[in-house]
Amino acid sequence: MSVIGLVAFTIGVNNRASVSVSGNDMTTTYAKNEAIKLRANFWNNLSVGMLLIGILIPVLSFFQNYPEMSQWVKDTWAGNFAVSEFGRRFVLAIGAFFVAAIVAGSCRREAQRIIGELD
Known about the structure:
Elements: H1 3-15, E1 19-22, E2 25-28, H2 29-64, H3 66-77, H4 85-115
Antiparallel strand pairs: 1-2
Helix pairs in contact: 2-4
């Protein structure tokens, strides 16, 4: 076993990174794993952001139009299912929540797929 091979084996055992030396090129699986983790972190953060947006849109829509909302709820409970401007906006906000949740789920699945590439 050569000295370079022994050093590469020692580094690989101690740092849990396999090192290959060919001329001046030194690549490690540790660096590759860090790049994979960063990609997965990006998708995971994107997922969290989309989920927060999906939650905030209906909540802010709800509180921004509270007087209209309370009247709309009273009318709806009374059996008057008239479509108001608030009703349209609220339905769009709920739709935005579901779209954001679907996109967040897709981003999360992508992050999990990327994490599966770790060595």
